[in-house]
Specification:
Layout: E1 10-14, H1 17-26, E2 29-34, E3 49-54, H2 68-73, E4 75-86, H3 92-107, E5 111-124, E6 137-147
């Protein structure tokens, strides 16, 4: 979808070499690097990217909320960050921690929230207990922030 909307210079990171190989096979990425988000710095200089996305990884047992300052570090002032998380029962504690961290960075003037949109049919649930509305799907949230210029 990003490529269809004009984004042509795409870089990706993942903690799994197998997922990087899958990404490489698409031919969409100019650069792919092995990096475990939240455990090591992103392999990019400060203020390097116009936009940073994290989709499907901000959840319990995956990427910790402590990654947020590192995402901001590599985003240009005025650049955008698009982040997602799940709203299923097993992720509610993480989601609350994430939203607290997002709000704290906003109150400190690091970024401005442009959107927080609930998505009812985010992904298929693997169990009935995880189905948010009993419809076979997990709901989620898309957050879009704009990094504030440094005064």
């Amino acid at each position: 979808q990003l490529h269809r909307r004009g984004f042509r210079c795409l870089h990706g990171v993942d903690g799994s070499a197998g997922m990087l190989e899958r990404a490489r096979s698409t031919g969409l990425y100019q650069e792919l690097r092995l990096c475990v988000l939240g455990r090591e710095p992103l392999p990019a200089p400060a203020e390097h990217y116009d936009a940073v996305t994290v989709v499907g990884a901000l959840s319990e047992g995956q990427v910790p909320c402590s990654v947020l300052p590192e995402l901001l570090r590599v985003t240009k002032p005025g650049g955008f960050l698009c982040l997602t998380t799940r709203s299923n029962p097993s992720n509610l504690r993480y989601k609350a921690e994430l939203e607290a961290a997002l709000g704290q960075l906003e109150r400190r003037g690091a970024w401005q929230k442009l959107l927080a949109q609930e998505v009812e049919y985010w992904e298929r649930a693997t169990t009935e207990e995880e189905s948010t509305q009993g419809n076979g799907y997990i709901s989620g949230v898309v957050y879009i922030y704009q990094k504030c210029p440094v005064p």
